[in-house]
Design goal:
The chain is an alpha+beta fold.
């Protein structure tokens, strides 16, 4: 009898236990661990700066990160060269634009726009892998720190749009409508100069040289000899 009562009580409580179990809050999944810090390493053996030809060691070694892959790679130029890239590339861009005397070069600079991120013009010392767009960060072995790869003076957002519009107005106004005409030399003049070797072209086609002018002036100012009495 006791066994039957126990079984009946168990059956009565089981639905309640199942309900409480279903109402229990689910255990939250553990938050993902933060990404591990980039593992920077020593410079590859025999690495040499492509600009100064100095040996690259732990005192001047640089790594750079490209986006969107986030990969770190060894720069083939020393820290001094990379720092110079950071400091001068924006100003150099503006100087080249101001002093360009080639329509094709001017058009290329305007299409590129002022630089934001440091870059290697040769594409060999700090190449950006296929699929990536730019260099975002730098790591200097000399102090073991990462830093932004933005060049000094870089502008973004509205300020960049305004600068690009201003550059186009100032430097793009004289460009040919067709880019194919950028490399065409200016048309040569077929007419003669109005002033040639001291001779002035006259409307009637006659020429009066400076020598003739001087002789005429001399004759007009030379006193005539007095008639003999």
């Amino acid at each position: 009898m006791l066994t039957a009562c126990s079984a009946g009580l168990s059956n009565l409580l089981s639905p309640r236990k199942r309900k409480m179990s279903s109402e229990a809050p689910a255990t939250k999944a553990a938050a993902p661990a933060p990404p591990a810090a980039a593992a920077h390493g020593p410079p590859p053996e025999g690495l040499e700066c492509m600009v100064t030809f100095d040996d690259i060691d732990e005192t001047n070694y640089v790594e750079y990160q490209t986006e969107p892959s986030g990969k770190w790679q060894a720069a083939k130029v020393s820290e001094d060269v990379v720092r110079r890239f950071l400091n001068v590339q924006f100003d150099e861009y503006m100087e080249h634009l101001r002093h360009s005397d080639c329509a094709a070069t001017t058009r290329r600079l305007l299409n590129e726009g002022p630089p934001i991120w440091v870059h290697d013009k040769s594409g060999q010392a700090m190449p950006v892998p296929e699929g990536d767009t730019h260099i975002s960060k730098l790591w200097f072995a000399s102090d073991g720190s990462e830093r932004s790869a933005k060049v000094v003076g870089a502008v973004e957002g509205t300020a960049r749009e305004e600068l690009e519009a201003s550059n186009m107005t100032i430097f793009g106004a004289g460009l040919p409508d067709d880019p194919a005409d950028d490399d065409q030399p200016p048309e040569a003049s077929t007419g003669e100069s109005d002033t040639v070797a001291g001779a002035t072209r006259q409307p009637s086609g006659e020429q009066t040289t400076h020598g003739d002018d001087e002789r005429e002036q001399s004759q007009s100012t030379t006193p005539m000899p007095a008639e003999g009495k």
